[in-house]
Structure formats: C-alpha cells, structure tokens
C-alpha cells in the first residue's frame, strides 16, 4: 500500500515538470521551418552560353586519361565494361589552352552494338569559371559522328544549366581519340545568395 502514494507523488512531479517545459518552449519562426518555398521568377536572371572545345582522350601510356575499371566476361564484346575518364578539353587541337576537364564514367550498355552510356561533369579550369561545372549525360555509338549529349544541370556560374553538346570525331587510333565539341546551353544566375 505504501507504493501507491509514492507512485501518485512521482506522477504529480513529472506532470508538473512537463507543464513547465511546455511553458518555456521557444517559438520557431515559420520561415525557418519551411522546407519548400516558391520563389518569384524575378529573383533569377536567364543567360545563354557557348563553348567550342576539343576533347582529347588518351588510352595508353603515362599520360592516359581513361582507365577500364570493370571488364566482365560477356558473349557480346565489351558489354558491361566500365571506364573512368578525366579528359582535358582544349581550345584547339594544338592543346594551347586548357578550358575544362571532362570527368566521369562510360558504360558499354548495349548488347547489339558498341554503344556507350556517358555520365560526366565538365569541370572548368578558366579562372573566371573556376569551380563551376556542367553535368552531362548521353549515348555514344563507337566511331560514329555526329554525337549529341544532354546538359542536365550545373553549378557555380552555371546554376540550373540545360542544353546540348554536339560532337564530331576528328581522329581515332588505338592510342587516342580527338572529338570536336560545340556546347550550347542556358542557365539561371541567382540574384540573392541563400541566407544561412
């Protein structure tokens, strides 16, 4: 019987503490709690861009730009092969000025023909664009031209980028590959930086 008064006393104490805690709670501003907010269109400015660059892939040697990371056994040649690449994009075939680097992966994803799924970032090296990227996806049929890839996003200067990359093969050997790329797109630059 002595346990019952003790239980009632502890229940009253815990209830009193809970009520005091509720009375001392802080009100959080509604703006801070929002996870989504529609922004007016005038907070961004719309711009277009164009680049003309040369993709130079090297397959062998000390300066190779591409490494095969998976080569499964398959009835169809190269099906399932995965390659990782970090390829320079030059201003010309003379490789005078480095504009950017194409960094990503290619996957041989077709069982009937040699066709590669490409997913990569164009990481800019120009001082005025340093740290900005374009995200690219597409399909490349081996030894065909022209090629076309989709720009599906961007960061830095190229926030919310979208566009198309057109490519034509200039030369292909067992050691290397040259592709001319014309990059067309548009992006939105935020007028306001986020308030952290």
Automatic annotation (TrEMBL):
BP terms from Gene Ontology: phenylpropanoid biosynthetic process
Keywords assigned by UniProt, alphabetized: Apoplast, Secreted, Signal
Matching InterPro entries: Allene_oxi_cyc_Dirigent, Dirigent
Keyword Cell membrane carried by entry: no
Chief place where the protein resides: secreted
Top-rank taxon: Eukaryota
Entry keyword Signal: yes
Signal peptide start-end: 1-18
Purpose of the protein: Dirigent proteins impart stereoselectivity on the phenoxy radical-coupling reaction, yielding optically active lignans from two molecules of coniferyl alcohol in the biosynthesis of lignans, flavonolignans, and alkaloids and thus plays a central role in plant secondary metabolism.
Assembly description: Homodimer.
Family, similarity comment: Belongs to the plant dirigent protein family.
Protein name in the entry: Dirigent protein
Organism: Rhynchospora breviuscula
